[in-house]
Amino acid sequence: MNGAPSRAAIAGTPDGYPSFSESERSRRWALVRRARDEVGASVLVCYGADRSGSCVEWLTGWPVTREAVLVLAGDEQPALFVQHANHVPNAARVARGVEVSWGGPSTFDTVARHVRAVARPGRVVASVGSWTEEARTHLGHAVRIDRSYTRMRLVKSAEEIAFLSRGAALTDGAVSNLVEHAAPGTTEVECCALLEDGYLSKGGTNHVHYLFSTPMAAPERHVPAQLPSSRRISPGDVVACEVSASFSGYAGQLLRTFTVGSGPTPEYAALHEAATEVFAALASAAVPGATVGDLRRAASPLARSGLTTCDDLVHGFGGGYLPPVLPGGDRPGGTRDDFVLEEGMAIVIQPNPVDLAFGRGVQTGELGVVTAAGWTSLHGFPRGLGVLGG
Fold first, then answer.
1. Rounded to whole angstroms, what are the CA distances from 350 to 108, 158, 270?
2. The model scores a pTM over 0.70
């Protein structure tokens, strides 16, 4: 497709960590302060643990290792409480615009004391993140503004697109490394090691690498597994993967299918042809002003072909699993049909067809950005069925 998303240069901290510009960081702080103030709160508390809870990283740059809580009171300098104590020195170098402290023996106790000290009398506390029941007990009543935070993440800035593009390039490198080195006799575990080798030395970190292998003549798997097995790939197999390598919290996403040693069987060739056709239809439909209903209609040929899926056909990405989400098959849920696409939204298109017996399945898809000219991929890895060890 014509057109390219607007990108910006990637800056760094004095310690050599990727960083956003001062104007970009100010934009984010202004958005969360406004959302906090709109619910009448004087304090916003953002929670994350084990690299989950994107608000902390989006605002500070710290990816949340064991546990981290960000407290934003009024216009004062925000406070970031980090577990464990030996993580604090690194957090102090990476996090921007915040005062970093150890969370103490109990992060929840420490944060509760801090909130009591900085909250205005009679004002509520706002929160973002998946708080445990224990954490909520310590924090007290809080107004959740997670939906407001999600809306902030839907349209990406030029700097965010630059980070996503770097994540996409790292992801391409991961799959390229798999293609270059995987061969009959390679185990699924070794395939995943090859994927990681493709980006670790280039500054990437793992977001996901899902993979399966199975004989095309007698398939036993139809969707990539989250945990690889010790099974060795063999001639006549099909291998499919979903890979996301992350650059400072911004991951690409690439889904591809490969045969081993030779071309596909007629059944797998037909499956992949159907995936390619629906991918093209969805990519053409994903333009500014289009709705989820338009995307649903673009994907309808998949069902008319007598196929289904066991994954979402489309989902937003970059800062979480975001709207619009279009479930495949007859699964309920997802985003309302009247949801409107906007320029700057990052969207994964992934029509991964499965036969109705859930015996055979293929993967094809990638991350792109909705631009004025239409949906534009951030990936450079070739499309189509590939071959491993050919």
1. 40, 24, 17
2. yes
Q: Are 326 and 334 in contact (CB under 8 A)?
A: yes
248 and 357 both lie in a single domain: yes
Task: Give the number of other CB atoms < 10 A from CB of residue 68.
Answer: 27
Integer Rg of the chain from CA: 22
Q: What is the β-pairing status of strands 254-260 and 237-247?
A: antiparallel
- pLDDT value at residue 11: 66
> pLDDT tens across 171-210, in order?
999 999 999 999 999 999 999 999 999 999 999 999 999 9
Residue closest to 155 by CA, chosen among 247, 28, 44: 28
Residue for token pair 């995307």: 295
170 & 288 share domain: yes
Strand partners, 81: 69, 101
Residue 196: is it exposed, middle or buried by C-beta count within 10 angstroms (0-12/13-18/19+)? middle
For the stretch 121-133, what's the b/e string if a residue is b when 16 or more beta carbons lie within 10 angstroms of its beta carbon?
eeebbbbbbebee
By C-alpha distance, which of 379, 377, 375, 384 is closest to 294? 375
Residues in the chain, total? 390
Q: What percent of the chain has pLDDT over 90?
A: 75
Residues 109 and 149 in one domain: yes
Q: Give the model's confidence band at 75: pLDDT under 50 very low, under 70 low, under 90 confident, else very high.
A: confident
Q: Are strands 142-144 and 124-128 parallel, antiparallel or unpaired?
A: parallel
CA neighbor of 4 nearest in space, from 167, 152, 158: 158
What does the pLDDT read at residue 2? 40
* DSSP labels, 110-150: HHHHHHHHHSPTT-EEEEES---HHHHHHH-SEEE-HHHHH
Q: Can you tell me the distance from the alpha carbon of 246 to that of 262, in angstroms, rounded to the nearest whole number? A: 32
Q: Which domain holds residue 144?
A: 11-154
Rounded to whole angstroms, the maximal C-alpha distance in the chain is: 71
**Could you tell me the two tokens for 384?**
């189509």
pLDDT of residue 1: 40
Backbone angles phi, psi at 352, to 5 degrees: -105, 90
Domain membership flag for residue 273 = yes
Q: What is the CATH classification number for the domain harbouring 267?
A: 3.90.230.10
Closest listed residue to residue 317, CA positions, set 374, 257, 249, 373: 249
